[in-house]
Amino acid sequence: MALLDKDGVRLSVEDTVATVTLTNPAKRNAQSPALWRALAEAGRSLPGTVRVVVLNGEGKSFSAGLDRQGFTPEGFEGEPSFLDLARGSDERLDATIAEYQEAFTWWRRNDIISIAAVQGHAVGAGFQLALACDLRVVADDVQFAMRETSLGLVPDLTGTHPLVSAVGYARALEICATGRFVQAEEAERIGLANLVVPGTELADAVKDLTAALLAAPRDAVIETKTLLRGAVTRSYEDQRAAERAAQARRLRDLAGLSD
Fold first, then answer.
1. pTM to 2 decimal places
2. pLDDT tens profile 171-207
3. Across the beta sheet with 121-123, what order do the strands follow?
4. Residues with Cβ < 8 Å from 223, sequence gap 6 or more?
């Protein structure tokens, strides 16, 4: 069932699995403010029954990044161009970028697990959208690149944190500062990809992973994801305490002693 289909984004839901599809293959799923608003709306529209969200892109490329039309004086119809935004106040520019970022923030909510199914180019904003997800299953023709620095910009769509978490500071700096392409074998080796498969097998591989993620009880998966996300900022002793508290909740729940 399609809950949303607008501005290059389609959200469909079947039972506990939602699929978000980028639907502008003619432009290699290039991104715009309208698309970002639609992605944010998709996140707000998820039914509470959804446990896994799959993100994919139609056509040969997952997303070739930002639609360069935004840098022309005309910009997008009905939208201020990025050049116009740059001429505005710092407060307006900060608020606008924060609004854009909302399209990239909800994928790591503790109550869902998100999977990016990535083929072909995932460049700039496309790379950051793939990084926004918990897991990445990629086709063997994938090409990741963070091109913002090469254009005199910085990655600002929430991609820097997950990139450093995945590959470490030094590798992340090298990838961003050079703007080079990271292909499938390297992506799997350095932790950007959980799995690499032939392009013809991408959809089936994602279905298999989704089924495996749904096999465990939902509350246990949510608690585990919450623990793992918090481990990045907690000390070892604080993480031990968090594990004890989470396990106590699970045991009480299994024993029927929850409030």
1. 0.95
2. 999 999 999 999 999 999 999 999 999 999 999 999 9
3. 121-123, 143-145, 182-183
4. 246, 249, 250
State percent of the chain over pLDDT 70: 99
Amino acid at the residue 245: A
Chain segment 13-52, per-residue pLDDT in tens: 999 999 999 999 999 999 999 999 999 999 999 999 999 9
HEC string of the chain equals: CEEEEECCEEEEEECCEEEEEECCHHHCCCECHHHHHHHHHHHHCCCCCCCEEEEEECCCCCECCECHHHHCCCCCCCCCCHHHHHHCCHHHHHHHHHHHHHHHHHHHCCCCEEEEEECCEEECHHHHHHHHCCEEEEECCCEEECCCHHHCCCCCCCCHHHHHHHHCHHHHHHHHHHCCCEEHHHHHHHCCCCEEECHHHHHHHHHHHHHHHHHCCHHHHHHHHHHHHHHCCCCHHHHHHHHHHHHHHHHHHHCCCCC
> Which residue type, as a one-letter code, is found at position 111?
D
User: Which amino acid is it at 205?
Assistant: A
Tokens of 177: 């500062």
